[in-house]
Design brief:
Elements (H helix, E strand, L loop, with lengths): L2 H19 L4 H8 L3 H13 L3 E3 L5 E3 L1 H24 L4 H14 L2 H13 L1
Antiparallel strand pairs: 1-2
Helix pairs in contact: 1-2, 1-4, 2-3, 4-5, 4-6
């Protein structure tokens, strides 16, 4: 997994945990992804240093404007790709979910826009 893909996975996970739980801490991310706490702490530190998230004195994670924009964009790509696979191609939910997780990171903006617009037209 490259740095961009890893960053995107963390941001998407934080967004989904926030939707589910409200407050998110590093331990929640570790539990969700099955990674060690030191690995998550390192990743959270990098995300904070790069201006995507904030961490308050209680350890609660929040998004910066840029971090939220990126997380929502990644999640939208994921959902759009998954729905396309299920609704248009007839792929199973499980396979579509797994494939969307991989494809969302490598699909060009041009191909994504065509895929998204295909769904709207048909």
């Amino acid at each position: 997994m490259n740095k961009t893909e890893s960053r995107e996975d963390y941001l998407e996970t934080i967004l989904l945990l926030m939707k589910k739980m409200g407050n998110v801490r590093s331990v929640d991310i570790a539990n969700e992804l099955g990674y060690s706490k030191p690995s998550i702490s390192r990743a959270v530190g990098i995300l904070r240093e790069n201006g995507y998230i904030t961490v308050d004195e209680s350890g609660h994670i929040g998004f910066t404007g840029e971090g939220l924009r990126l997380a929502e964009s990644i999640y939208e790509r994921h959902i759009t790709i998954k729905k396309f696979f299920v609704e248009v191609l007839g792929v199973s939910e499980k396979a579509a979910e797994q494939d969307a997780c991989k494809i969302e990171h490598i699909l060009s903006e041009e191909s994504y826009e065509k895929l998204k617009n295909y769904r709207v037209k048909h």
